[in-house]
UniProtKB/TrEMBL annotation:
InterPro entries: OmpR/PhoB-type_DNA-bd (IPR001867), Sig_transdc_resp-reg_C-effctor (IPR016032), WH-like_DNA-bd_sf (IPR036388). It comes from Alkalimonas amylolytica. SMART domains: Trans_reg_C. One of its GO terms (biological process) is phosphorelay signal transduction system. CDD domains: trans_reg_C. Residues 6-105 form the OmpR/PhoB-type domain. Keywords: DNA-binding, Membrane, Transmembrane, Transmembrane helix. One of its GO terms (molecular function) is DNA binding. Pfam families: Trans_reg_C (PF00486). The keyword Flavoprotein does not apply. This is DNA-binding winged helix-turn-helix (WHTH) domain-containing protein. It comes from the Bacteria. Residues 6-105 bind DNA.
Amino acid sequence: MSTNLPSTLQLNDIVLDTVQQALRRGDETIQLEPRVFDVLCYLLAHRERYVSLQELHEQVWVGRVVSDTAVRRTISKLRAQLQDTNLEQPVFIRSGMKRGYQWLVEPVAITPGTDQPSAAALPEAAPSASPARHHFAIGAEPATPESPSTPVGRTLFAVAHRRWLWLLSLAVLFAVVLWAVTNQRPDTGSATEPAPDSLALPYQVLLDIPGLKTNLAVSDDGQWLSFIGALEGMQGLFLQHTETGRLHKVETAAGGAHSPEFIQQGEVLLYGTADTGTSSWHMQDVGDLQLPAKKIGLDNLQSPAAFLSLGTNQVLISAQTELTAPHTYYLYDLEQQSWQPFSYSPDANTFDFGARLSPNGQQVALLRISRLSSVSLILVFDLQSKELVQQIPLSENIGFLEWQDDNHLLLTHRLGKPILYRVNLVSQAIEELATTKPWWQLMRSRNDQWFGISYPTDESARFFQTAVTLEQAPQRLFNVPATAKELALSHTAGWYYLVELQPDSWSLAHFDASSGERVELYATKDPIRFIQAHPSQPLVLLGLQGRLALLDTSSGALQWVTNSQQQVAYNSSYLSQEALYYAEERAGRWQVTRYDLTSGQQSAVVGYRFLAPWQQQYLAMDTDGQFWRLSAELEPLQPLPLKLLANQLHLRMLLDTDQLMVVARRSDLGFDLHRLDLHTQQATTQILSQGTLFSLRYLNVVNGTLVYRDNPPENSKIVRFEGTPFVHQ
């Protein structure tokens, strides 16, 4: 759409650049979608009156038939970019019933070359009959650079259908980081005083489409980005050209993809798959996405979880030689198809990830965590000799690392605080940097361009109740405090268990959902995870400090069941009338332990990941993912018509009378919901896209009723910095 508006306008605290079609607020630059920009210009040009939906149809969507919903959605996007979402007290755009929309703020032209408003009058723009458009379609041909005069646009999605949205998850690598977030204790060590704000440079927002983005990868020249995302109902592996803004969804195996990395000078995208049942990785030609990806087996390497390109034909891969081995890095030669160890560990609980190459190409830094310790390590290797040259212990709050220069590392904070850590590799000093916003990941290209993903927004969760069949709409939306983190069914009619995060502590309360009355049962400074209530006794199973504990809700007495050294799978625990059954991994082998509620005695059954009593018999899942009916003596009687992938990382087991439900996380940010009727032995599987109803953690069922937590869609931005960020001047 042509416009007679000046090139730069002041709109309260926002500057509108009509040439670049962007908004600037402080150091932040927000690139507007072409259609959003056109609507903004039209409202500005006709600010003396209301503009109806029909007029926007005719003047902005010229020659196209679109719904009123599409127009309203564009207005909503514009309001979000302007941070003008309070409809009762609008700042920039007000709406009138059956009248349309009116722009409220008087724009002031800014004289070119200065930051001062000018007295120049603002002419009204006459709508053009043929507005310019940039259509960036999912699955379109690879982007080619457009003319310099073409502004960078955000992507418009052509989506055949919308699927529901929920919380993030990642494949193998992100699952490990997520495990660290949910299972390790907060840092209790002394914190350094934050340094003054480290002058993060202005940045340009490259992608702000609602949804979660993670696992960012950047090509050597900074022309291409790749990431795992869930964008407006579409989840999977994406490619974006940084100059044209063109976005592509990469077609991958049915199970999804993880850990993208550019190799061979950015001409090939390497990624792994996790849900195929075998260890595999794939090479996709970036220049022609219509070509099928080349699938490569890793022979004796299993569970590839992270990649780092070291040149044309060499890649570092975080993997295992067997399931009982540590997850460490191996150097793989693409041409010879051979590998050799790179990082070593005698501890089977080790997981190495996040490797990055120094700017001079001589060193590799990576992160090492252990499931049995709250301590993380930075390991620095000399690339030529493959020798470990530095080992630096860290707080467990570390997210991802990147080299700032050859002597300094930057590390993000995994809990969403506006903090970065800068590590001086010469002195090994760790400096805490205060930032204006939290960052999830920072990434530097080989030609020293800097990119980042902002930490996802965190809004209050909602809790719903419905029938376990999911065949009907939710029957109830609960009115809970903003501090609520979990809501679970109890066996007392009308009452629920409520977990809250207070300013200084966590608490568990009995909660009357009708009156709002709450009776506190337990409080602690450590995060509380509610798992299950006993069928008839005042007893609840909790996860605390990475351990299982039983709380007597009548007396407040807490009984520890496991210790901090045990690797317990919370989501596979089951509390019956007589005993607690919990799954744990020991030395690479799974077992289910039975804890007798009366005597406290424990006994183990090796080779299973789930075990629960049912009608004088047992239900079980073995390590291959096959479900069984077992005798009272735990002898296999019959395989059941339900089998999951072997070694699936994240599962939620729920047994309700004669219904078995299993929620399994997929690597494409979605879930599989498996249901088995134990009487008819009819099994069904339903694919739930990223964000349906389910979180593996916040799911509770009693007597055919299901309570679940639905997080509002999270959103993170991908940005490009104008230089090296977070450098003291």
